[in-house]
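Co-fold these.
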Amino acid sequence: MERNFRLIVAYDGTRYFGWEHQKTEKNTIQGKLESVLARMLLSGGRDQIPDPLDPEKCISPSDLPEKFLPEVTVTGAGRTDAGVHARAQTANVHLDTPLSEEEIRAYLNRYLPEDIGVSEVKQVSDRFHARFSATGKTYRYTFYTGPQKPVFERRYVTVLDRTPDLTRMREAAALLTGTHDFKSFCGNPKMKKSTIRTVDSIEILRNGPYLRLNFHGDGFLQHMVRILSGTLLEAGYGKRAPEDMTAVLAARSRSAAGFTAPAQGLCLMKVDYQ
Amino acid sequence: MERNFRLIVAYDGTRYFGWEHQKTEKNTIQGKLESVLARMLLSGGRDQIPDPLDPEKCISPSDLPEKFLPEVTVTGAGRTDAGVHARAQTANVHLDTPLSEEEIRAYLNRYLPEDIGVSEVKQVSDRFHARFSATGKTYRYTFYTGPQKPVFERRYVTVLDRTPDLTRMREAAALLTGTHDFKSFCGNPKMKKSTIRTVDSIEILRNGPYLRLNFHGDGFLQHMVRILSGTLLEAGYGKRAPEDMTAVLAARSRSAAGFTAPAQGLCLMKVDYQ
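Predicted complex below.
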């Protein structure tokens, strides 16, 4: 009988084409999870199984050809872009398996690449849906402003060549906080659904050479956190007046907002559920 | 006129065949530094120079064929192995250039790959030699013992599947501290020179899931920190009695000591000079 499992997943998105499974591109976080789970179902969690092409031989589930794999669909709370990271992405998957939560977690961590880790597997109500049940999300954007090259953290920060004015950034952020139509901050020009979202808070924190922007809201449009980050940076650099944010929102046009900050500085930190 | 410059260099060693320039392998930290410095000398620090094959055209110094480059020799304090990292490796290089310390540093950081950074360039006495003038070095070995996969730090730690006994490790470390013949801890079986070294201190510190071993000494033999780390881990796991360290040193044989801990957990933290 199928059970519904909630997964908490951390990943370094550098090598991937984002979270979501693409028609022509399998190198996604969702694709990696689905492939390992399909092999787990077929092997019953064992590390050696009979070769379907030659039952006298045993092979690793990793060597099973795709065509033998059962269909598995993993649903993520946030469809992170190519190059974006996550510390606690949340997903759910319906699986017919006798394995325990801990056995599933151990199997995933053993067979997933080292840049994807599953920190929790928990059986949840059948009605739990990682995306539709989510009530809030926290994203963090990290800029690096130090004099040294961030050799060890280069994949997780966006380097700035000078320090922006934090007071200006905070003034601009205050005007963007709240319930607004964020169409100007939506990277998808063909977005048909509502572009109204509530951003509860935008914290702008300096810690040594790191400038961190923490966004919490009920949901975010495509590229929204990256466009907010780019626009706030432009305010911090004096390219825009903080008080212009009201007009940027009112324009309901992507061209009114600032640039899309690079993917590598963004990380999905947490997903909230009731 | 040639001046002698001291460089402080940080690098993520994952992609490199170690610090030292190899006859058949140019992908070393030393090799990267020498290549960028040679291009800097030839271009006078400019970003565009006449193409030596077609003086009507301009090219980037990065595109200069090797054969046009002047010889430059960078000497490092510690010849780190393939995969070993450094936060503050120290090197020196004699250069005939009118550029200032800060111009050299900026040029290096612009043209070096993003996993190598130069934090300081300083003109020093002609007699300064990064290796022979060094009076001490600090290396850190990091094991990771947490329940989660270290997705973001995977390149800089060695994952353990259980936590060793720190008291046993500290007892063993105390016997290895001091001036000893470390031949048992030398990875080079053909070592002709003295294998006597002084290890002033071995700190064993736990911080959350990280178990850090800080070694300070006047110098370290090839693989010595990694063999010390592997041997201390075996003591922590109960595979060796801490009090056996005295006999391991006395044996003066590589086979008496423990395994060589993987390169990725090791980092050269600091080099001391008088």
